[in-house]
Amino acid sequence: MSESASRQNLRQSAGVLLELAASDAGLPRHNENAAWALYYLAHELAKAEDTTGTEAAIRSAIEIRNNLPPRARWLDNYAWLLLTAPAQNLRDESKAESLASIAVQLAPKTSRFIHTLAMAQLRTGQFDESANSLRKSALLTGSGHPEQQLLQAILTFRQGDTDQARQLYASGAVLMEEKAPANPRLLTIHQEVAALVGSDTPLRKDVPDAPTEPTN
Question: Which of 39, 66, 165, 194 is the most buried (most CB within 10 A)?
C-alpha cells in the first residue's frame, strides 16, 4: 500500500530540515522544526498501525529535543512530546514534569507552559500541585480559555467529581469550537477529557490539519 500524501510530506519535511540543520547554514530551530515534523509523522504512522515506524519517529524526535538548547519554549515542547507521544511506551511523565517546571521557571507568565506543567502534574498524580498551577494560569488567561477549562475538567474528574468534570468539559469544548477548533494541542487534550468523562462533544470537521507547533 502506498504511503499517504500527508506522511510523505511530513517525512520529506523532516529530512530537509535535518539536512539543513547539519549544514553550515543550519540553526537549532531547524532541528526544532524537524522534531515537530517527526512528532506529527509518528501520529500519522500510528493511525496506519505502523508501530515500528511510530516508535522510530518518536525516538528520533526525542533524540533531537534532548540535544536542543534549554530554551523555555523548546523545553515546553519537549515536555509535550513526552506527555503525548503516540508510542505510549516512550512517554515519560516524570521527565516531562521536570522539563515543564524549568520552562515555567524561565517564563513564569506564559500560560501555555503552566498548562503543560499542570498536565504533567495530573499525569504523575500531583493533583494539589496541578490545582495550584491551574490557579496561576487562570490569573493569566481567565476562566474563558478552552485549555484552562479542559485541564480543569481532568483535574475535577481525578478528584472524583464526574458531573462537574462533564460540565467543564462541555464548556471547554464550546470555547474550543469558538476560538481554536483546529488547534492540535487542544484537540489532544479534548480527546483525553472525552475519554475520561465518557462523552464526546462534536467538533467541526471543516478545519485544516495543522502540522506545526501547537499554540494556545
Answer: 39
